[in-house]
């Protein structure tokens, strides 16, 4: 019976990963969870298992496709954070909530900076910076704290 529940939980998570980006494209007030997915990806890279790598990658790719964002820019933001800032943040290893909050905030800020640079270089307008983006950032941090 326990195995059945585990399968149901992972199927629910997979359904969320596949269908939530589609809901975001319809209901624009839903948070993006880019930083949270990036933090889960980092946990996977640290040895939590293949699911922590595969599901965030699938979510980020699906999100970028559904919202017409630059492909793999969120992955680039996560890798920049992982290479440049993550070793410095690990001194807070005893406070896992602090690591999660800082990771999510920095991944979101790096992604926002990369979007601004991308828009400047290619003279486009991918994302408008407003209070909705701030709401998305706050919900991202709340999700990291709840993890």
Automatic annotation (TrEMBL):
The keyword Membrane applies. Keywords: Membrane, Transmembrane, Transmembrane helix. The chain crosses the membrane at residues 7-40, 52-85, 97-121. This is Uncharacterized protein.
